[in-house]
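A sample follows:
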Amino acid sequence: MRHEQFTKRYLSTILLTAMMTGMFAAGALAWEDPLKGRYLSGAPLSICDQGSFFVGGVPKVTRYASSAAVREGGPPQQITIGQMYVQFQIPEQRRKWPLIMIHGSTHTGAALDSTPGGGEGWLSYAVRNKLATFVVDQPGRGRSGFDQSVILEAKATGNWNLVPSSFGRITDDGAWTTWFGHIVPAGTDLITGKMIRHGDPGDLDPAENSAEPSQAHGVYPPAFPIPPGPNSANPRLVARAGAIGEAPNPSNNTYLGLEYYKQLVPNGEVTLPGSVCPSCTPNNLNAIDTWLPLGLAELLEGIGGGILSPHSQSTSSVFHTVRILKERGELNLVKGIIIPEGAGTDLAAAGLVGSDFDSIPFLMVNGDYRPLATRKGNDAAVAAMNASRTRKVGPALSLNVEDPIFKGKLNGHTHMGMLGSTALVEFDFFLDWAGKNIDNPLLKSGCAARTNKK
């Protein structure tokens, strides 16, 4: 079937099903209407500036910028690739050093805006707590864009080696089995098995999807917008109106309709070239550890320093940012590192040693249900930092939410904790730790002077 015919038939199916089931009726939404219910949990924000800009990127001249119609391609045209989108909010009163938050795999900066259930996100909460805050979309992802010319050139020339062998993407059911629950019995899938939450009857505790699963957890559900919580599942997705492909086990339909899944996007950075790092082990770097570190380094250089807060996949890129700034003699620009759910914390892979973090306050918190292998890697990196005899700041920390220090307040805090019901509790802990470990004084005025712009 031709694409146009398929699209028309698909859309007709959606509209017909929606009308038959009354799904376009008022209230049949998973998201909160901000005109009727506030997302922000506190007083209105007092900001003096907000906006966006791009950093990094390089020009690329290609004959396949927009078409694969002919093998020889069209006329040479230039596109820009590898750039990084940055959005920001500046409070009227702020601390000296800003916070830079970086999303992880399959996500964009939207993960820091608001929770899927219509709650306050970390971006506004950081601003509320007097932090100038920058949120990025990784190069190759979201508003930063990706390089479509490699796909068009491959189609035109038949050289399919130009196309990445894999587009990383966390699937909806993959997110479920990694962070929220299981598909039982073990070895089945969404078609043949049944999805259950952590803490529910039949919970495979510890998890079945890792060679080194997380430690056993308590009998509690994930602290995340999952039915029966409000604004957690989209009725249109649950009813599978206009769905494409095989039908899943009907008992899974509710858990396959989470509003959260709409945030998941392909890791388009795989269309960007990698690079070579002589001091790294191994030497060949993938795209994410090539372009994101360059963008973050340029951002820190441009704003004069800041606190880096990567999530999951972007942790390794922040380590490479440390390496780049070390090579440039600008390591002082990193005023602190705060990591929710670190991954890729291998120092040697980024060409680093523990003493490179001597002057960098460092905190990492592992969420519930986290594989033991990941925690071991995080613990090893922190141990190397603390083993340095020349460390000048407080000890680096790698904590687990089960730690008694949290008094059970973060039970069920998932890998995507910034989008869950424990999000602000964790951020409050970050703020408290930063207040004790990062020298970040309040400024008399947080608002920059207005320049003569036209």
